[in-house]
Amino acid sequence: MRVYHEIAKNEDGFTLIEMAIVITIVGIMIAGFTTGFVLYLDQAKTNVTDERIEKIREAVNIYLEINGKLPCVARLSNQIDAGGFGKEIKSGDCSDSGVPNGTFQDTTFSVRIGAVPVRSLNIPDEYMFDGWGNRFLYAVQEQLATDGQYDGIGQITVVDSASNIVTNSAHFVILSVGEDGAGGYNKNGKRVGPCADDTKLDGENCDEDGRFRSTLLFADTDANTHFDDIIYYQSQTSPNEPIPAGAVMAFQLNACPDGWREFGRARGRFIIGSGNFDNENYTYNGRNWSSGARTYVMNNRGGYANWLQGEDEIAEHSHTVPILSRSGYSTLLGGRDAADTDSSAAMDTSIEGGTTPMENIPPYLALLYCIKE
Predict the structure, then answer these.
(1) Is 258 in the same domain as 277?
(2) If residue 53 lies in a helix (H) or strand (E), which one and from where to where?
(3) Does 16 score more than 70 pLDDT?
(4) Are 189 and 292 part of one and the same domain?
(5) What number of other Cβ atoms are within 10 A of residue 166's Cβ?
(6) Which of 25, 230, 336, 343 is the 20 to 30 A CA-CA neighbour of 32?
(7) Measured between alpha carbons, how far is residue 306 from residues 3, 9, 296, 310 in Å?
(8) Region 170-187: what's the mean pLDDT?
(9) Which residues contact 324 (CB under 8 A, 6 or more apart)?
(10) What is the dihedral of CA 59, 62, 67, 72, to 10 degrees?
């Protein structure tokens, strides 16, 4: 038997031209997706950078309100979790003549340049880095970050792409060196790459002086006009009245901020106002009571966390004991005559209760008390 099979026209394979068209279309789709995904990732890193700059700005201004000065810089070169990582190089004296490694000083305009002191600001360590994983640069006017010298005058200069002065009185600058990282420092405290010539747009922000550039221009292939930095500067800062030395405050932190130390005398104790406390009369449970006048002397301690009440501290009360007497005689009355009726009389009872002290404190919330140095 012979079997014939006719191949239908629609069962023919793809021609080379058809395959080429399909591959071209798929390639265009993949390229479009890849480009879009790369742009999405870049924008995400930019958003992270913007958010962290805003958080740092808030923390710097809070620090100013508490301490009456701006924070000094941290070292750019300190490795993560090194002893001074994220700490001011010298708390209270940013105008010191010494220039530690990983920091820079513009002596002409008294500007200090380094890393963001995240641990002195009590913000997470990751805020030391921008969205590309490089360290933010932080520049501050030295006298504005020194105890007793805050005068509200800044001399940090910011210019635009044409070198026109935007401001010459900035107090501090927070800067990301952008995607290319040129002139910046990575997570390990190493230079990412050399800083461009300061005649180039990007080069102005990493040449270790007190002049910075801010422009709306963005990355360009021309080295002369390339700019991908993200910069924030603040020209006005106005602290509240500085907190005086000796002030005590409660913090929800594991350690006291810079410029503060633990107030150890407050451990496990409630704080009470010093001075004279006048007598107060009040009614409780239907009876009138008096608090009594007393004096609380500064720095004196008193009171007990646990207390075993004595007889004099228990409110006045009496016990009624029923006594049953019969036939004119009561053994409970020691053989004395008694009427042949139920009666009552006061008498001593056996000792009741225990010797465990009661907790003598109300509901509480434990915080860390620190004293300003």
Answers:
(1) yes
(2) helix 16-67
(3) yes
(4) no
(5) 15
(6) 230
(7) 105, 99, 20, 13
(8) 93
(9) 330, 332, 342
(10) 30
**Considering only 51-60, 148-157, 205-214, 288-297, which range has the smallest mean pLDDT?**
288-297
For the sheet containing 248-251, what is the strand order?
248-251, 368-372, 260-262
Give the range of the structural domain holding residue 284, as residue numbers without chain letter.
243-308+355-373
Which residues lie closer than 8 Å to 313 by C-beta, 6 or more apart? none
Residue 3 pLDDT class (50, 70, 90 cuts):
very low
Question: Does residue 6 form part of some domain?
Answer: no
Residue that terminates a domain, selected from 202, 234, 266: 234
Identify the band that residue 319 occupies on the pLDDT scale cut at 50, 70 and 90.
low
Strand intervals (E) in 68-119:
104-106, 111-115
**Is the pLDDT confidence value at 72 over 70?**
yes
Q: Are 323 and 333 in contact (CB under 8 A)?
A: yes
CB atoms within 10 A of CB 225: 15
